[in-house]
Amino acid sequence: MIIFSTGSVVLAAKKTSLFYNPTFRALLFQALAAAALAYFIYSIINNALTNLDQRGIATGFGFLSQEAGFGIGLSLIDYDETYSYGRTFFVGLLNTALVSVMGIFLATILGFVIGIARLSSNWLVSRFAAIYIETFRNIPLLLQIFFWYFAVLQALPTPRNSISLGESMYLNVRGLYIAKPVFEPNAHWIGLALITAVFISICYTIYAKRKQKVSGQQSPILWVSLSLLILLPTLAYFASGQPVHMEVPVLKGFNFRGGIGIIPELAALLLALSTYTASFIAEIVRAGINAVSHGQTEAALSLGLPQGKTLRLVVIPQALRIIIPPLTSQYLNLTKNSSLAMAIGYPDLVSVFAGTTLNQTGQAIEIIAMTMAVYLTLSLLTSLLMNIYNRKVALVER
């Protein structure tokens, strides 16, 4: 005789039912949420396009091929008023990338120096670092940009009364003017020599590190690399007949002509971003170094390592595991804070494209969407690179 339990049969049926499968339910709910979000976004875009059509406002990206008709004070690529709005987008993008990359580079160096100085045993050095940190990180960034631009750079003399910093360098209210290298046909040999020097330096660095792991002997990596980077291009310069000459800026009329001109808007924005962000980076560095066990420092000093090598070879590599995640956030903040450039007229993406171009074309949705996509891409790219480096220095456990 076979006796069936009704409760057991129902329970078994539930277990075999597809809806009660946790994996299936998770995928189903995620798909429904994604569909609802997609429908919500579609409804907003469709409603906006309908309203624009009813008002007779054109939509689409056709405006990018129209002539811009306005000038830009700083351009890393060829540009004048006859170029299209699409060209203004790339000009603003490159200007934003320029100040972001340079700001990250300067803020990192200054932040590490101030952060290490904050832990100095010298009372005067540590107090100076503390004052710097508490001052710059507690003043709004916009006010610091105004300070550097209006109080410092706008107080410089006129071009006719420029401050001479050498035979080919002049500083005035219009900016800093320096000599520009002009390359002749044979100058490509210098570039090839520089690439060769970089390649040899990388190979030598890999070899020196492997040698140190095997034998414990250190090789002078820095000095050898610098010698190669200076010596090979110099030899190529003289061997190819000195195919580079300097174009010196010359005062003509009310301003200098020729050479390279660094506009005051760029200098003010760069100074403000780097000094402001460096104050946060300094605290991150200080916290990271303090998180390393003091026994590591004592062990290194007991082996006869000087304080400089102890910091560089023992403390900093371990502190980087703590420093890098918050450091990435500061890099992202610096890139996004560069949008404050329009307050002083620096031609970044927001000022040139989301400002002037938007006012002339009225293509608000397209322009704002492109601008947001640029900042999102820059942030994701920065995060990707920093995460790769973070995984490289992370502690590997077995």
CATH topology of the domain at 85-160 and 265-393: MetI-like fold
Low-confidence stretches: none
Q: Profile the largest sheet.
A: 4 strands, antiparallel
- The gross shape turns out to be globular
The CATH class of the domain at 85-160 and 265-393 turns out to be Mainly Alpha
Oligomer: single chain
Question: Can you name the CATH architecture of the domain at 85-160 and 265-393?
Answer: Orthogonal Bundle
Report the total helices. Answer: 12
Task: Find the CATH superfamily of the domain at 85-160 and 265-393.
Answer: MetI-like
Report, as a whole number of angstroms, the end-to-end distance: 58 Å
Strand content: 5-15%
Write the element-wise H/E pattern from the N-terminal end onward: HHHHHEEEEHHEEEEHHHHH
Descriptive terms for the model:
globular; 398 residues; alpha+beta; 4-stranded antiparallel sheet; 12 helices; MetI-like fold; two-stranded antiparallel sheet
Walkthrough of the structure:
This protein is of the alpha+beta class and 398 residues long. The protein has helices at 6-16, 22-54, 85-118, 123-136, 141-152, 188-215, 221-239, 264-291, 294-302, 307-337, 349-361, 364-393; strands at residues 163-164, 169-172, 175-178, 180-183, 244-247, 250-252, 255-257, 260-262. Strands 1-2-3-8 form a 4-stranded antiparallel β-sheet. The protein has a two-stranded antiparallel ribbon with strand order 4-5. Strand 1 and strand 2 form a beta hairpin. The longest helix has 34 residues, at 85-118.
